[in-house]
Structure formats: C-alpha cells, structure tokens
Write a structure and sequence with these properties.
With 83 residues, the protein is of the alpha+beta class. The protein has one domain. The protein has two helices and five strands. It has helices at 44-60, 67-82, and strands at residues 6-8, 10-13, 16-19, 24-28, 35-40. The strands form two sheets. It has a three-stranded mixed β-sheet with strand order 1-5-4, with no helix packed on it. Strands 2-3 form a two-stranded antiparallel ribbon. The relative contact order is 0.15. This is Aldehyde dehydrogenase family protein. Pfam families: Aldedh. InterPro entries: Ald_DH/histidinol_DH (IPR016161), Ald_DH_N (IPR016162), Aldehyde_DH_dom (IPR015590). GO terms for molecular function: oxidoreductase activity.
C-alpha cells in the first residue's frame, strides 16, 4: 500500500466538517519519519459531540433498521479509503 501525503485538518461530525478543537498535528511515517500530512486533533468535547451525533443518527433515522442502506454506506466508505 502506498501512503499519499494528506492534509485532513477537519473532523466530520454530524455531517459537517469542523476544525478539531485541539488544532492539528503532524502525521509521520514511523518507518521513514517523513511527514505525511496534518490531521485534526480532537478533544474530549469533539468526541462527545461525535458520539451524540452518532446516537441521534442511530435513534432518529432508519440507519439501525435499513440494512441495505447501511451496507451501501459502508461499501462507499471502503471504496473511498481504498482510492
């Protein structure tokens, strides 16, 4: 697998990209010590917001009952990660 440099300085919470409350940090390849990019640094409050959003999505939508939709979303995520 080839690692590509990235700059992912936002968190996806409740369907929105927001900056991490902890700023950003360098992502470093441990084998080469090459800086691959930057990533958002989430805090405990960011984590709480993400968990609350996930709970709402699970409780207030058909996500937990619509198995076909959930499978499509997970396949789309897999494809994006492999791209």
């Amino acid at each position: 697998m080839t690692l590509r440099p990235t700059d992912s300085s936002a968190l996806l919470i409740d369907g929105k990209l927001i900056p991490g409350s902890g700023g950003t940090f360098e992502v470093i390849n441990p084998a080469t010590e090459e800086v691959l990019g930057r990533a958002a640094d989430a805090t405990a409050s960011d984590m709480d917001a993400a968990i609350a959003a996930a709970r709402r999505a699970f409780d207030d939508t058909t996500w937990s009952r619509d198995h076909a939709f959930r499978a499509r979303c997970l396949r789309q995520l897999r494809d994006a990660l492999l791209a």
